[in-house]
Amino acid sequence: MQLTCINCPRGCELTVERNADGTVKVTGHACPRGEAYGIAEMTNPVRMVTGLVRVAGTRRPLPVKTRTAIPKGKIADVTNLLANTTVLPPKRIGDLIVPDACGTGVDVVATANCAV
């Protein structure tokens, strides 16, 4: 697998391979973060998710995000959950919107304030 590392400004071009014994070999990295990124992308890729939820009584949606990255395979489930979520105001930045989104163990939080 060919990847461009996104963990530092260098943007190293990585080659990531799974060996016959199940270990992962990363080449092309200039720092330990690149190697860790390559291994994670091969074994358990994760991403942050951002989105919008409805706010009852207003037409303005509330921007939200996952508190930490979630498994890539759960992104569609979480975005579908957000599309069907309505919250009551007020909300402040960092307020819990959805606990343990889709069984990921990761909470969804507000990224803006909403008074009404």
Can you give me a brief rundown of this structure?
This protein has 116 residues and is of the alpha+beta class. Helices cover 18% and strands 31% of the residues.
Rg calculated over all Cα atoms: 18 Å
Annotated CATH topology of the largest domain? CPE0013-like fold
Distance, first to last CA: 48 Å
Look at the structure and give the CATH class of the largest domain: Alpha Beta
Q: Major sheet: order of its strands?
A: 8-5-6-10-9
Number of individual domains: 2
Count of beta strands: 10
| CATH-level-2 architecture of the largest domain | Roll
Query: What is the general shape?
Result: elongated
Largest sheet, strands/sense/barrel: 5 strands, mixed
What proportion strand? 25-35%
The SSE string, one letter per element, is EEEHEEEEHEEE
Distinct helical segment count: 2
> Would you identify the regions where 5 or more consecutive residues have pLDDT less than 50?
none
Helix content: 10-25%
CATH homologous superfamily caption of the largest domain: CPE0013-like
Overall pLDDT level: 96
Structural class: alpha+beta
Tell me about this structure.
This protein has helices spanning 32-43, 75-83; strands at 2-4, 13-18, 24-27, 46-47, 50-55, 62-66, 70-71, 86-87, 96-98, 108-110. It is elongated and about 55 Å long. Helix content is 18%, strand content 31%. The chain has 2 helices and 10 strands; from the N terminus they run E-E-E-H-E-E-E-E-H-E-E-E. The chain has 2 domains: 2-43, no CATH class; 50-110, CPE0013-like (CPE0013-like fold, Roll). The longest helix has 12 residues, at 32-43. The protein has 116 residues and is α+β, with helices and mostly antiparallel strands. The strands form 3 sheets. Strands 8-5-6-10-9 form a 5-stranded mixed β-sheet. Strands 1-2-3 form a 3-stranded antiparallel β-sheet, with helices on one face.
